[in-house]
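Incident log, support desk, overnight shift.

02:14 A customer reports that sequence design results differ from what the structure should imply. Their input is reproduced verbatim below. On-call engineer (initials T.W.) acknowledged and began investigating.
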C-alpha cells in the first residue's frame, strides 16, 4: 500500500481554501492508504510568530483535523516537533540540497519580500518539508497547487541522496492535487490565506458565512444582473464545486452562462450547501474543544506511532551515510 504524508501549519482554524485544496482529500485517503498527517509547528517558526499562542494554535489545528473527519483509528495525526527525527533528517538532507534551488522557490521569494530581515529557516523550509515526507518513505503527498514546486525540489533531494547513498532508497514523492487545487480569497485576487485575511473559516456560524459570501468577488464581467458569466473563471463557482452536489453544480453553471440567476442567487444556493456540510463539523469541533485532554492524548499516541517509523528510517540513513554507530548505553 502506498504511503501518504501531508502537513499543515498550525494556523488555528482551517479555512475553506485548505479544506477544499487539501484536507478534504486527506479524509478520503485515510481509508485507502497508509496515511500520516502532521501539524508542522517547526515550519511555523520560519516566519514571525507569537510564542505565547503557538501551543494553543497547534491544539486548535488538531481539533480542526479531527472535526473534519481524520480518524486516529485510520491514520496517524501528530505534531511535527513531537518527533525529533524530523529535524535530525533535515540536517542530513542539507548536504544534498542545492542552494540555487532553494533560492528559486516562489514561496521563499514571496515571503522573503514581506520581511525586513530574512531568517535562514525561511530558505531552508523546503528541506524540512522534504525530511517530513522522506522520513516515512511516503510516495504520495496530497497538497494544494502552491506546494507543487516544493515537491519538485523534494524529488531532487531524494534523487541526489539516492545517487550518493543508496539507489532507490527514498521514493520520489508525487503531489496529489484535488479538483479544487486553488481557492482564491473573498476579494478574488490572491489565494485564500489566513495571513491575507481573506478567508472563510470552516467553523464559522451560518450568519458569518453568509455575511462573507454575500459581497465576495465573482466573474468581473457580470457587472449587472443581466450580464452572462463564465463559471470557469469565477471563484464562487470553484467553491460550489467543492460543496454542492454535481447536479447543482451543472445547474449553477447553466444559470450563470445564461444569466438565469444573478450572482446573489448563486451565492444563496452555495451558502445553504456550505452550511449543511459544515454544521456537523462545527459541532464536533465545539465538542472537542471542551476536551483538550482527549485531543492531547490522541496526539501523544499519534507521535508514538510516527516515531517508531521515523527511528527505523534514521538508523538506516545514518548507516548508509557512514556515521560511526554509538555504542549501547
Ligand atoms: P497551509 O495552511 O499553508 O499550511 O496549507 C495547508 C494545505 O492547504 C496545503 O496543502 C496547501 O496547498 C493547501 N491550501 C492552502 N491554501 C489554499 C488555497 N487557497 N487553495 C487551495 N489549497 C490551499
Ligand atoms: N509547506 C506546506 C504548506 O505550507 C506544509 C508542509 C510541511 C507539508 N511539510 C509538509 C505539506 C510535507 C506536505 C508534506 O502547506
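02:41 Re-run completed on a clean worker. Output:
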Amino acid at each position: 500500500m502506498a504511503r501518504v504524508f501531508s502537513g499543515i501549519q498550525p494556523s488555528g482554524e482551517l479555512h475553506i481554501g485548505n479544506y477544499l485544496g487539501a484536507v478534504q482529500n486527506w479524509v478520503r485517503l485515510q481509508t485507502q492508504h497508509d496515511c500520516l498527517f502532521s501539524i508542522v509547528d517547526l515550519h511555523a517558526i520560519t516566519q514571525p510568530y507569537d510564542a505565547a499562542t503557538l501551543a494553543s494554535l497547534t491544539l486548535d489545528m488538531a481539533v480542526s483535523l479531527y472535526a473534519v473527519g481524520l480518524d486516529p483509528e485510520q491514520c496517524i495525526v501528530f505534531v511535527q516537533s513531537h518527533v525529533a527525527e524530523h529535524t535530525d533528517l533535515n540536517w542530513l538532507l542539507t548536504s544534498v540540497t542545492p542552494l540555487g534551488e532553494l533560492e528559486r522557490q516562489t514561496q521563499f521569494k514571496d515571503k522573503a519580500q514581506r520581511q525586513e530581515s530574512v531568517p535562514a529557516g525561511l530558505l531552508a523550509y523546503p528541506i524540512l518539508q522534504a525530511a517530513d515526507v522522506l522520513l516515512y518513505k511516503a510516495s504520495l503527498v496530497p497538497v494544494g497547487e502552491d506546494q507543487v514546486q516544493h515537491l519538485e525540489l523534494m524529488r531532487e533531494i531524494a534523487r541526489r541522496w539516492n545517487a550518493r547513498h543508496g539507489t532507490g532508497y527514498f521514493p520520489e514523492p508525487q503531489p496529489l492535487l484535488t479538483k479544487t487545487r486553488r481557492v482564491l480569497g473573498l476579494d478574488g485576487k490572491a489565494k485564500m490565506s489566513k495571513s491575507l485575511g481573506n478567508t472563510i473559516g470552516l467553523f464559522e456560524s451560518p450568519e458569518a458565512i453568509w455575511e462573507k459570501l454575500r459581497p465576495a468577488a465573482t466573474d468581473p464581467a457580470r457587472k449587472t444582473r443581466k450580464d452572462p458569466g463564465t463559471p470557469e473563471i469565477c471563484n464562487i463557482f470553484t467553491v460550489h464545486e467543492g460543496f454542492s452536489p454535481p447536479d447543482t453544480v451543472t445547474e449553477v453553471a447553466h444559470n450563470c452562462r445564461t444569466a438565469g440567476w444573478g450572482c446573489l442567487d448563486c451565492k444563496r444556493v452555495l451558502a445553504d450547501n456550505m452550511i449543511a456540510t459544515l454544521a456537523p463539523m462545527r459541532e464536533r469541533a465545539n465538542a472537542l474543544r471542551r476536551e483538550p485532554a482527549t485531543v492531547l492524548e490522541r496526539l501523544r499516541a499519534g507521535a508514538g506511532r510516527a516515531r517508531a517509523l521515523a527511528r527505523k528510517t534514521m538508523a538506516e540513513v545514518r548507516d548508509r551515510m557512514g556515521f560511526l554507530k554509538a555504542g549501547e548505553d
